[in-house]
Amino acid sequence: MNTITIETGDGPMNAYLALPPSGHGPGIVLIQEIFGVNQVMRDLANAFAAKGYVVACPDLFWRIEPGIDITDKTEAEWARAFDLFKLFHVEHGVRDLRATLAALRAHSACSGKVGAVGYCLGGKLAYLMATRTDVDCVVGYYGVGLDELLGEAVHIHKPLMLHVAGRDQFVPPAAQAKIHEVLDKHHHVTIHDYPSNDHAFARVGGAHYDPEEAHIANGLTEHFFARHLS
């Protein structure tokens, strides 16, 4: 596995690193779900790298237990994932992502421009990268808890794209309405809705995976990064 070590200020953190075929390109900070830096995340990193990006996916659970790598296939793994979610400290996660952003910008393979993309827990953290860092652009997939963070929207100064699942079991209609009420009028934010889809509709192999809608969302993400990171 190709990894780099990032100094966070609180200790060293590993990150999965995927390089483009050319060996050089813009950067992407890939933000994990609640299952750690697992095969799904590594596959995503490799896919973005194949499109020309230098991708770093940090091990955000390192303070709890380094190297978490589980799936969504068993009840025991789901229980472990939710335990990790409860133990995870969001402020620490943002700090680690800020360190990852700096490390990626300084990496010899990176052009200097860096975007971020996150899924589920990572979708929430992606939003916080947009409000709390100087990342060049951000994409969030079905982020949880954004309705409680809308007061930070005034700090979004770079392009942010959100993919929202209309039937998301973790983001009820009232929460989605609040997100739209505040962010629809923000000129840096674009929201794409998927009314018939549940949470994690873009997770390959997941229970709610919808290949057609995932293809649409991923195409929009690809175009977004090409526009803002080139």
UniProtKB/TrEMBL annotation:
<feature type="domain" description="Dienelactone hydrolase">
    <location>
        <begin position="13"/>
        <end position="228"/>
    </location>
</feature>
<protein>
    <submittedName>
        <fullName>Carboxymethylenebutenolidase</fullName>
    </submittedName>
</protein>
<dbReference type="InterPro" id="IPR029058">
    <property type="entry name" value="AB_hydrolase_fold"/>
</dbReference>
<dbReference type="InterPro" id="IPR002925">
    <property type="entry name" value="Dienelactn_hydro"/>
</dbReference>
<dbReference type="InterPro" id="IPR051049">
    <property type="entry name" value="Dienelactone_hydrolase-like"/>
</dbReference>
<dbReference type="Pfam" id="PF01738">
    <property type="entry name" value="DLH"/>
</dbReference>
<dbReference type="GO" id="GO:0016787">
    <property type="term" value="F:hydrolase activity"/>
</dbReference>
